[in-house]
Amino acid sequence: MANPLRAFTARGLGLICLGLALAIGGFAIGERDLVALGVLAFTLPLLSMLTVIGAPRRAVHSRALQPPRVTAGSEARVLIRVANSSAVLPIGGLLAADTLPFPLGQEPRFSIGYLRPRAARDITYRVRAHVRGLYPIGPLKLSCTDPLGCVRIRREVGTHMSLLVTPSVVPLPQAPLPGGSANGGDTPARSMSGGGEDDPVPRVYRRGDDLRRVHWRSTARHGELMVRREEHQWSDRSAVLVDMRASAHAGVGPDSSLETAVGTAGSIALHLLGRGQDLRLLSGGREIARSRAESVLDALAVLGPSATADLSGETGVLADASITGNGLLITVLGALGSADLGALVQARGAREHRCVAVLCQTAAWPSPDTARQAADALSQAGWLVLEIGSIRELAGVWHRLPAHSGARGGRR
Questions:
Q1: Residues 53-108: pLDDT tens digits?
Q2: What letter does residue 151 receive in the DSSP assignment?
């Protein structure tokens, strides 16, 4: 203990000072009873310390989160078990308080009281986070107080556990994707061989080919062993870029444009994955997740704002994004400057695939006119522009996307 005096409460320090004063005064005037009373008052807090010293070290705990991963706005339960590890000595006057970050609310406090040897006590409470992130919960802070309230010994036990809060997402309508053709449908994988059982497009047998693929009709016709070609499947591949520049967004909390952009990117990513597409999630000039709904949401949960000034660094990653089939190139954007528009126009280039730009109207636009001019510039460059004020508007504008590939540019 670095400073033993810190273990004494105001009552304990008061008794010590009073005892010293009585003892010194009684000795000065020759009153033995006063000296005895002073010694008693002085030693009482010291004796109290003997009853609680070492008690917090005998207390152990375990904790669990149910569930350890929630969506923003949902609750999670924190389960804690506090036990007395001693087989002989009890623990009295035990208080517990758990450590929480500010977004999860005030620290909960519990009066556990008396714990017999080897006894345990279960406590539980609920937490709710309205903004995505990775939140540490713990460590547990324990304090033991003697029955007279003269001494209080504090100790932190254990470490923290992390609660992962993923962004809020909204379901999008199952309409034909805007990248597809009128007769292409939404089939996630298609054959490139063009053949079937009646038209197998055979080839000459090669060593190692599976004999079950031998096509006997073609073998008889060609006079040599022929096998069916493998059907080469290819998937629709999309890419979603989320603009995380701190300077491009405005507001705080769950209604900020940054959180709107993250939730929008997550909603679109889950929608495309649900349609059987391969997906790359991009931000900050790099790929942060790929082709699994859980990994996409986990990556978005911990994605922090960027200090980058413009989108020029995103040009390379957008150019390298492999978009195939009915795939889409989707950017979810904050406020745009002239350099940002130039980078997006360059990224659009001569792509044949549909490019969609989602603009957050509540971002850090200098004026409403600036947002309209940016939307017009992107539309003229071939981007299909969607404008939303919050994530709740996404399903409505997504539903109005043109499904045929002939439409080029436009605003919704």
A1: 888 889 999 999 999 999 999 999 999 999 999 999 999 899 999 999 999 989 99
A2: B
Cα–Cα–Cα angle for 126, 129, 130, rounded to 5 degrees: 140
Angle at CA 290, nearest 5°, toward 183 and 192?
Answer: 35
Q: Which two tokens stand for residue 44?
A: 């009482």
Asked if 104 and 137 touch (Cβ cutoff 8 Å), the reply is: yes
The Cα 18–Cα 358 span in angstroms is 73
pTM for the structure as a whole: 0.79
- Paired with 266 in beta bridges are none
> Which pLDDT tens digit goes with each residue over 356-365?
999 999 999 9
Helix, coil or strand: residue 28 = helix
The matching CATH number, chosen from 3.90.700.10, 3.40.50.410, 3.10.180.10, 3.40.50.300, for 235-411 is 3.40.50.410
Q: What is 55-166's CATH number?
A: 2.60.40.10
**Domain spans of the chain, in order of start:** 4-52, 55-166, 193-231, 235-411
Rounded to a whole number, what is the largest CA-CA distance in the chain?
131
Name residue 109's beta-bridge partners. Answer: 97
Tokens of 117: 């040897």
- The sign one gets for the Cα dihedral 364, 370, 372, 377 is negative
Same fold, 55-166 and 235-411: no
- Mean pLDDT is lowest, of 2-16, 120-134, 145-159, 229-243, for 229-243
Q: Which helix (H) or strand (E) holds 14?
A: helix 10-29
